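Cross-posted from the bioinformatics board.
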Amino acid sequence: AQTVTQSQPEMSVQEAETVTLSCTYDTSESNYYLFWYKQPPSRQMILVIRQEAYKQQNATENRFSVNFQKAAKSFSLKISDSQLGDTAMYFCAFLPRASKLTFGTGTRLQVTL
Amino acid sequence: DAGVIQSPRHEVTEMGQEVTLRCKPISGHDYLFWYRQTMMRGLELLIYFNNNVPIDDSGMPEDRFSAKMPNASFSTLKIQPSEPRDSAVYFCASSSYDNLANTEAFFGQGTRLTVV
């Protein structure tokens, strides 16, 4: 069975600073996808960034980037130049081919002035 | 594409009543997932479909819950009879494996269900 672990229940960062959210996963699959979702107070689940396991290059979307370490089964999210609007719950998710989308328990991020 | 569309956005019902939640996945997506989110349990996968066929319903909590996907563009999650502990936000998500470079998984805006 696949599992996703987010070991940081809560984190805080000052505006304009950089923060890294951790995620590890366990799988025997070789082809899969990894995602980070943002859930603001509105409860909407917003796809932030995705990574294909067969790609060695780390994905980047504007201020969001990942550090994907396939051998270590690690997939961390880095948010640069943090903004107040980044305050939200962040979920890491794992999607193997022909199987279910599995989520971690989430990290609550608070961006402060 | 308008994204994954769920209806209703909010539902308040009395205990014992039947509740039906609806989902329209993104066109071309061949996987559909139903999740439930509560403060106590977090995000739980209830059931998922591939090409309209239920693949894994082990997360469905009880026989009171049922889900169908009669075609590629529509799915329902039904609770009958509803109980207060079913109060939660229910999300539908769809994903695609059609093209490796385009594999994605998007969520609807959720249905907030309150059973009183």
